Amino acid sequence: MSEASITLSVVIPSYNEMKNLKKGLLDQVHDFLSKQSYSWELILTDDGSTDGTVDQLKAFAERKSHVKVLQNRHSGKGPTVSAGMLTAEGKYRAFTDFDQSTPIEEVNRAMDLIKKGYDVVIGSREGEGAKRDEEPFYRHLMGRVFNFFVQLLALRGIQDSQCGFKMFSDSATKKLFTALFVYGETQERKDAFMGAFDVEILFLARKWGLKLKEMPVEWRHVESDRVNPLKDSVRMFRDILRIRFAWAAGKYTLKTSE
């Protein structure tokens, strides 16, 4: 399938997902995409899993059509998603969480917005039309506090930078994901820290004048033992400052070639 023939690429990062694999979430994603009239591909990009996830992903790809599996060393969500987005060949490219906290069905609404001229569509758990299900109060409160500082330091006016569902045009993908600095580093990690990768992407999109749109989505809380709310919040705040300093130091280069 040539690059021009693929309409939508869906990129799903993974890290030790055996629990989620048993829920049949990938089958749900594949079943939905298979019913669409446009051409598509599903890219499963793994962040150095150690629990047998990669073997299961490969087995899934052997059984299903239009599925690619990428193996990466454990470097965190940013480099893992970037590898998938830059391998993708679709005219529209979305990444979404393995646990499907935002359902795959949202891709069609996002694609419609890109077709109307937006470069980046951000899934948002805030604003009119958004639905949040089963989220503990303390997690919601921490998210709002974090967003306050994100808006203060990097992304004024964006209500939710951290929802794991986002879509990009192919040209925006190439510009943004090749330019990451803080989360472009690929050194090996020892934990599952996801970080402020989304902030860096959106910060660059804003600085370079790309057209962004927040899209209220349906979202449900999925409990995870990977999140250390206090420790991760401190590290994410640190990384937002690193992004600002990197911009001031001229570390970001806009690549104009397609």
Structural account:
The chain is an alpha/beta fold and 258 residues long. 40% of the residues lie in helices and 17% in strands. It contains nine helices and nine strands. The chain has helices at 18-21, 25-34, 53-63, 77-87, 106-115, 137-153, 170-177, 197-207, 229-248; strands spanning 8-14, 40-47, 67-72, 92-95, 120-124, 131-133, 166-169, 212-216, 218-220. The protein has a seven-stranded mixed beta sheet, with helices on both faces. Strands 6-9 form a two-stranded parallel ribbon. Strand 2 (40-47), helix 3 (53-63) and strand 3 (67-72) form a beta-alpha-beta unit. Helix 6 (137-153) runs parallel beside helix 9 (229-248). The longest helix is centred in the C-terminal third of the chain and has 20 residues, at 229-248. The protein is globular. The model has no long low-confidence stretch (mean pLDDT 87).
Strand content: 15-25%
Number of strands: 9
Helix content: 25-40%
Q: Give the structural class.
A: alpha/beta
Dominant shape:
globular
Largest sheet: 7 strands, mixed
What strand order characterises the main sheet? 3-2-1-4-7-5-8
* Rg computed from alpha carbons, rounded to a whole number of angstroms: 17 Å
- Poorly predicted ranges: none
Q: Output the helix-strand order.
A: EHHEHEHEHEEHEHHEEH
Q: How many helical elements?
A: 9
Question: End-to-end span in angstroms?
Answer: 19 Å
Quaternary structure state of the chains depicted: single chain
The pLDDT mean sits at 87
